[in-house]
Write a structure and sequence with these properties.
By secondary structure, the chain is mainly α. It has helices at about 30, 35-55, 90-125, 125-140, 145-155, 160-185, 190-195, 200-240, 250-260, 270-295. It is elongated and about 80 Å long.
Length: about 325
Amino acid sequence: MSRSSIPGELSVAKEGGAAGGQRSLIGPRSVLRLRSARIAVAVLVVIGILTAFGATLAPQNPLTVNANALFQGPGPHHLLGTDYLGRDVLSRLMAGTRLSVLTALEAVGIGLVLGTGPGIATVFLGRWFDFAANRVTDALMTLPWIFFAVAVTAALGNGLVQAMVPVGILLAPFFFRVTRAATLEHARAQYVEAAALLGATKLHIVRVHVLRKVLPTIAVTTASMAAAALLAVSFLTFLGIGVQPPAPTWGGVLSSDLGYLAQAPWAPFIPGALIAITVGALNALADAFRDRSGAGTLVLASPIIRTHSTLEPADDDEQSQYVA
């Protein structure tokens, strides 16, 4: 069996062979058996606590200016030092977690809603809807996201919530492609064909038989896109887009520290490490979930259905064999 790939498509692994292609759904315990997943979850739990209570747990007021404590290094009174205005860096990072994380989740939520629904619908609504949805997706993927984000932010107002709207729109094609590919695989399962022969509606088939099979792929994509969205938030706030000073954000703290490398050469490493660790934890969790569930890879699928099909079988000459 040869190894191949489908350009522009991401798919899901099918287990169980020709007898139905059933995949067992995995639980959190199975994922947490991996050491990388446990470390990632521990990091994300800490980030979640800081998101909810960071401003309350901050040892000092993150906005308080102290002219007598400029560029102080880490010490007992300022565990991570102070910035160019004498503000406590640890407090600013803790308080800035909420805005950084919640706006990243906003972008992921927009992409999830805009991408998964059409991705599933293309398999069941016929070739014209499939064609139109794919062309819209291709158009969105060609947009330069930074210019698109700046343009939309200028139109909606300079706020981080508004800035995440275009980021979420540009994340939607990734959700669309992986969801469509996963749905294409499971739409040919025997239990789906049996349900259609028994008179089940397409909505019932999607809700009962297809959606739960696609959920592992959506979960992996959500974790990966959360990491991408967090990087986008940090990049935009690093440029000063979408954030109003003196509100603290991770990217904003990093940007201000880079302007004073001569006075505090250690300062940029602290917010940079926080961003890198969080993004790494999200990617590690996505990898762990994919390793346990098999989501994200395509194996033997014979015969495959046409990319525009509803529940019609493919022609014999369209059969292909794909392996992970």
